[in-house]
Amino acid sequence: MSVLAAPEAKAAPVRNVLEARGIVKSYGHVVALDGVDFELRAGEILAVVGDNGAGKSTLIKTLTGAVVPDSGEILLDGEPVHFKGPLDARHRGIETVYQDLAVAPALDIPSNLFLGRELLSPGLLGSLFRRLDKRRMRDEAERAMAELKFRLPSIASRVENLSGGQRQGVAVARAAVFARKLVIMDEPTAALGVRETGQVLELIRTIRDRGLPVVLISHNMPNVFDLADRIFIMRLGRRAAVVSPKSHSMADVVAIMTGAVKADGG
Amino acid sequence: MSSATPSAPEASAGLLSRVKTIPSVGPVLVLLAFCLVFAVTNPRFLAPHNLSIILQQTIVVGTLAIGQTLVILTAGIDLAVGAICVLGTIVAGKLVNLGYDPMLSMLFAVVLCTLSGLVAGTLVSRLDLPPFIVTLGTLGILTAALRLISQGGAFPVQDSFLGLTGNTFRVGSFVLTYGVLAMLLLYAAAWYLLNETRWGRHVYAIGNNPEAARLVGIPVRRHLLQVYALAGLIYGITAWLALGRIPNADPNALQTANLDSITAVVIGGTSLFGGRGGLVGTLIGALIVGVLRNGLTLAGIDPLWQDLVTGILVILAVAFDQLSRRRR
Ligand SMILES: Nc1ncnc2c1ncn2[C@@H]1O[C@H](COP(=O)(O)OP(=O)(O)O)[C@@H](O)[C@H]1O
Ligand SMILES: [Mg+2]
């Protein structure tokens, strides 16, 4: 069996892994989401773009269980789900990567990869004495990194001895290893330099190529056009359009984002 | 202790860099240096009798330092170590002197110490109060309350169960007490918990990056609460070991326990910023404190000077920690 959770079925070309319909979320009289429809297809990288305050983060939070919408429904693999919290979404196979490096720097790579989901030894050692299976975590971490083709100095390195890109790589790999359905990334490269961003983007592509769909929120248009299969454009709490980077230019997308052009591709 | 971050040195790494990955090397060298100085200046220092004494003198601070290590690893600090332990000795001693069953009295005292830790942990984890203030407040409250309960004075505690851990056995020419054995067993158990279990791994993660710990689903608040309660339990057990050392309950005892236990932890290589270090270092640190106090006593130096030297030592160790943190 693969170390990475088996991405479920590559068979149907346009199957929606995650779908949201008519999502509404208000904060007081600020309507953050005003009836948003959203779908993530199997095996794609879907970029979510929009101006500041357009509602990107709020939308993502409803999909990860961090925010409960006022109305609307969310379907995971066609099945309605009601996430009560982020752990709930995680148990259903949705992993999230955050902008700031969510790693424990003094711990080594396997410890970070398995943080909160450590493997226990088989038998009584594990069940009674709660003993960590460090060996297996190390081996599996090594295998996962090899499968993701992510180069690291040594699997036993403390994360603090890695570059920023490698650290974020560890966080992304953690999501990829445990996500059974999809990975959501909220500006995963915002804190990184150009070369380090490249490493992480490459990793995201590898994850997609292995069949796991990715939702990527990004402000960086060149990155979005480099990576995305489709671009979900938000404006004023609504879905303005969903376009393909093949049929639209960066200027088109920016125009839709800012409202200079009304799009029909919703 | 290195197992928090199990590191197999790369084959290419030189001996020096390999040695540097074992964090307890520094403390061991400091311990050996002190031993060397004291051994050269006083031939009695290395006598088996004196070495046994050092071990026995290390029991109380050494065991308290286990709890202190747990708390400091979460980026906290415990200034109530001595006070909670004294609470244990006074409550157990008082109850036994009133005629209650010794075993139940001790058990009750240990439970009370655990509750003290639980209260401190609740304030730290639920109200987000700084550990420094919470435990300083606990220290003040307990110290005053204990003096009130015992009407200010110390009293003898003559009971075979409460004094049990003071019983001796011989290993070659060394005379050890069961208290020494108990301390080492507690170290072993706490080491296992900290290095070989999920619970311990999460203590490191919380001290290292609480936000990351929360994001991966570790119940950070509950974990902190457990850490303080466990520390309280350890201080309670230490009360029993303390009564084995000296059959006397004294509200004014263990005045230097804060300084000594924090010194042991920090000299042992555990960072005051949390998330780094471990119990092997702390045990060595506690031995350093024990050797230092013993050696200076043998040299006829006033205990106040011992506090002074310990104070300098802890500041040096923290400065070292701060510098190596800046380099990271
Ligand atoms: N917790 C909150 N409380 C009040 N208003 C909020 C909250 N979160 C978001 N908003 C508001 O909702 C709107 C959408 O915000 P957000 O989803 O963060 O947009 P984006 O991520 O696209 O910048 C903004 O007007 C913002 O001020
Ligand atoms: Mg945002």
Automatic annotation (TrEMBL), chain A:
Q: Annotated Gene Ontology MF terms? A: ATP binding; ATP hydrolysis activity
Q: Which UniProt keywords apply?
A: ATP-binding, Nucleotide-binding
PROSITE patterns documented for this protein: ABC_TRANSPORTER_2 (PS50893)
ABC transporter domain segment(s): 18-261
Q: Which InterPro entries match?
A: AAA+_ATPase, ABC_carbohydrate_import_ATPase, ABC_transporter-like_ATP-bd, P-loop_NTPase
Q: Which Pfam families match?
A: ABC_tran
Superkingdom, natural source: Bacteria
Instruction: Please tell me whether the keyword ATP-binding is annotated for this protein.
Output: yes
| Protein name per its UniProtKB record | Sugar ABC transporter ATP-binding protein
> What organism is this sequence from?
Pleomorphomonas diazotrophica
UniProtKB/TrEMBL annotation, chain B:
Q: How does it sit in the membrane?
A: Multi-pass membrane protein
Q: What Pfam families does this protein's entry cite?
A: BPD_transp_2
For molecular function, the Gene Ontology terms on record are: transmembrane transporter activity
Keywords, alphabetical: Cell inner membrane, Cell membrane, Membrane, Transmembrane, Transmembrane helix, Transport
InterPro entries found in the cross-reference section: ABC_transp_permease
Q: Which residues cross the membrane?
A: 22-41, 79-96, 103-123, 129-150, 171-194, 225-243, 264-292
Q: What is its main location?
A: membrane
The subcellular location is: Cell membrane
Q: Which GO terms describe its cellular component?
A: plasma membrane
The name this protein carries in UniProt is ABC transporter permease
